[in-house]
Amino acid sequence: MSAQGRWTVETVSSVYESLGRDYDALSYETVEFDLEGVEDLDTAGAYLLTKAVRVEDVCKAWSLTRGTPGQKTLLDVAAAAQMGAPPRHTRQFVDTLDRLGRATLRFWDELYATLAFLGQFFVMFFGVLLRPRRLRFKSIVALMEEVGLDAAPIVAVLSFAIGAVIAYMGANLLGQLGFSVFMVDLVGFSMLRELAVVITAILIAGRSASAFTAQIGAMKMRQEVDAMTVMGLETFETLVVPRAIACLLTLPILTFLAMMSGILGGLIVAWVTPSQISPVLFLSRLQEMVAVQHFWVGMVKAPFFAIVIAVIGCRQGLAVTGSVESLGARVTTSVVQAIFAVILIDALFAILFFQIGV
């Protein structure tokens, strides 16, 4: 195939349709391009020339006999576009195993990276505690307001609703057996030992862990973290430790608020249901049957949840690359990992307390 003149976007439009029909009318097995007489060639011209490479969904072998290296490059790109990607032969069973294997490797990589980040955090955290002058109190107070004070209403309302639901279910089920008063024990045990701290941690994981990831991730995208490193500021000391301390101080307070709110919800439902357990009887039964150790069992978990939530949120934020897609993916991963870690740690604490008889 010999071409002459200018093959550019301004000149090839007039022959686009007719040349395509000419290709379909011919029968050939190979294509040889002779572009010695071509004065100018761009992508549009190369695309039109290489329409001869693929005719009736059959890809022909082609070569360039005379032409410049630049023309050869354009023809390579255009011919590849004409030929298209080769069909992908799928094997469902093998592909499933491949995805499973890759997911397993990603899980272990994430676990290793999180544990390494946690160890690095504790080294910096205890170092800052030994030198209190390095603590950024203004940042900690501002983050405590964001993590704790702003989250208090939703924690209180949700815990109140959970306590009311547990009391209502207990009134229905236990009332059929004539044991309505045991509803008080059910509300006390469930809210103090498990539900208050777990609900609070899950809310903070969804609310604050995602916020930490988004804040630090946005700083990474704007290269503010790199600028801080150039200025000599330690990333962990500046970004991670204040957030961890804020979570560490506020999560126990929010857990206590959730406990009181849940018990209040149970008290009100017990009072207005047909069982009509008065507030005085409710509080007396609660004090008599629910030992104070159950309160401390719930409170002991809060600091562990706080550290894990803060570390996961900050680690995912620092792992953000320069794209918005990366930021969105890391925010989602942060919430999922934080909630998963909270539930896993709670299960480990349940086993531990069962073994020591608490």
Describe, in plain words, how this protein is organized in 3D.
A hairpin with a 2-residue loop joins strand 3 and strand 4. This protein has 358 residues and is mainly alpha-helical. The protein has helices spanning 16-25, 43-49, 69-83, 92-130, 137-149, 152-175, 182-221, 224-230, 235-272, 279-289, 292-318, 324-356; strands at 2-7, 30-41, 54-55, 58-59, 61-66. The model has no long low-confidence stretch (mean pLDDT 85). Helix 7 packs antiparallel against helix 9 (235-272).
Quickly list its features:
5 strands, 358 residues, mainly alpha, elongated, single chain
Number of helices: 12
Q: Secondary-structure element sequence?
A: EHEHEEEHHHHHHHHHH
Rg, Å, rounded = 33 Å
Which stretches of 5+ consecutive residues score pLDDT under 50?
none
Kindly name the structural category.
mainly alpha
Mean pLDDT: 85
Count the E strands: 5
Helix content: over 70%
Beta-strand share of residues: 5-15%
Shape: elongated
How far is it from the N-terminal to the C-terminal residue, by CA?
88 Å
The strands making up the biggest β-sheet line up spatially as 1-2-5
Query: Strand count, sense and closure of the main sheet?
Result: 3 strands, parallel
Topology:
Elements lengths: L1 E6 L8 H10 L4 E12 L1 H7 L4 E2 L2 E2 L1 E6 L2 H15 L8 H39 L6 H13 L2 H24 L6 H40 L2 H7 L4 H38 L6 H11 L2 H27 L5 H33 L2
Parallel strand pairs: 1-2, 2-5
Antiparallel strand pairs: 3-4
Helix pairs in contact: 2-3, 4-9, 4-11, 5-9, 6-7, 6-9, 7-9, 7-11, 7-12, 9-11, 11-12
